[in-house]
Amino acid sequence: MNPITDKAQNSMSVELAKEGLKMSEQPLKKLLQQRAAIAKAIYAKEEVSDASFNRAKAEEEMIKAVAGYNVSVEALLEAMTLENQALRRKLAACLEDVNDLKQAYAIKMAGEDTLLQVLMERVAA
């Protein structure tokens, strides 16, 4: 074997091997890019899932807050209703007192009129 031709063949083999690597590099790069794109899509999906989970959790918290608010409003309405009933009872008691005072005043005035009439009759007699 001739060393010059061997060297040329080796050199050519190296060039072919490099060219083959370059050619096999392209599909490998493409495959790696596709894998990276898939990984990004999975990560994005996980982020969307996390965001959906967080949104669902936020909605649940909002529902709890609204329910708590509704309970507070109902309790406030009940307290106001009880207070209203108590005020109505006080008003009714005040009206009874006023009616009692009116009757007492009427009786007193009638009594004074009667006393005045008796005195006038005595003076006239």
What is the percent of helical residues?
over 70%
Shape: rod-shaped
Head-to-tail CA distance between termini? 178 Å
Multimerization status: single chain
Number of strands: 0
Supply the number of helical segments: 1
What share of the residues does DSSP label as strand, in percent? under 5%
Poorly predicted tracts of residues? none
Order of helices and strands: H
Report the structural category: mainly alpha
Q: Mean pLDDT across all residues, rounded? A: 76
Rg for CA atoms: 52 Å
- Largest sheet descriptor: none
What is the fold's blueprint, element by element?
Blueprint: H1 3-124
Keywords: Coiled coil
Coiled coil: 70-104
What is this entry, summarized?
The protein has one helix at 3-124. The protein is an all-alpha fold and 125 residues long.
Describe this entry's structure for a reader:
The chain is mostly helical. It has a domain at 1-46. Helix content is 98%, strand content 0%. Keywords: Coiled coil. Residues 70-104 form a coiled coil.
For this entry, give a set of tags.
1 helix, 0% strand, single chain, 125 residues, mainly alpha
